[in-house]
Model the fold of this input.
Amino acid sequence: MKPAGRSSQAAGRRFTPVADLKVKLYADGAQVAEMLELRAKPFIRGFTTNPTLMRKAGVNDYRQFAQEVLAAIPDRPISFEVISDDLAEMERQARAIATWGRCVFVKIPITNTRGRPCYELIHRLSHDGIRVNVTAVLTLEQVERAAFALRGGAPSNISVFAGRIADTGRDPVPMVTKALGMLDEPQMELIWASPRELLNVFQADAAGCHIITITGDLLKKLDLVGKDLVELSLDTVKMFRDDAVTAGFTLKDVR
Done:
C-alpha cells in the first residue's frame, strides 16, 4: 500500500479565514491586560465576562474592574452579570449596570438558584430599553420563552451554553440550529457560549449562529486553522522529544 503523500493532506477541508467568518467572535474572560490586547484585533467584535471568570482572574472590586475595562473599550458590546439571587435585587443591579456604558449588555440568568424563572424580569428590563444577555440557557424551551420575553424590546442576546450541552454527550449543533429559528426579530442574537474547541467556531458559523464566545486559550490556537496535518504531526513528535530532553529522562538501563 502506497503511503499518502503531502498532496493528499492538502486536499482536505478548506477553512474559511477568520476575517471572512459570518459568526462574530466575542472574547470571554476577565484578565484586563488580555482584554486590552484582544481589543486591537479587528476580528474580536465584543466581550463577555462572568463572576466565575472574574474570581479566577483575581478581581476584588467588580465595579472598579468594569470601569477600567469600559474606559479602555467603550465602543464594543460587553456583557456584565448581575450577582444577586433575589429577583428584585437583580433588577436593581441590572438597571445600575446598564448605566455603566452605552455598549453594555446586562447578563440575567435564565433562573435564580432556586429555579425560579426570570422571564418577567427579562421582559421588563428589555422593554425599558436595557440590553439584556440571557445567560445559562441549555434547553429549547428556555430559548423559546426567553425570545418571547424579549420580543419587541431592546437589542438582546440569548446565550446557549453549547459546550455544557456537549459535556453531557449531546450534540449541540441541532439545538443551536433550532434555537436560531425561534429568534424571529432582528434585534435578538444567539450566542454559542462555552465552546470547548476551535472547531466550535466553524460549527457555529455553519449553523448561522450570530455570535460565539471564545477564551484566550482557544484564540491562541487560531494559527493552527488549516495547518497541514503532516507538519502538525512532526511538530507533535518534536514537542515530545524536546520535553523528554528538557526533563532529563533516560532509559539507559532498559533491557
Q: What stands out?
A: The chain has one domain: 19-222. The chain has a mean pLDDT of 93.
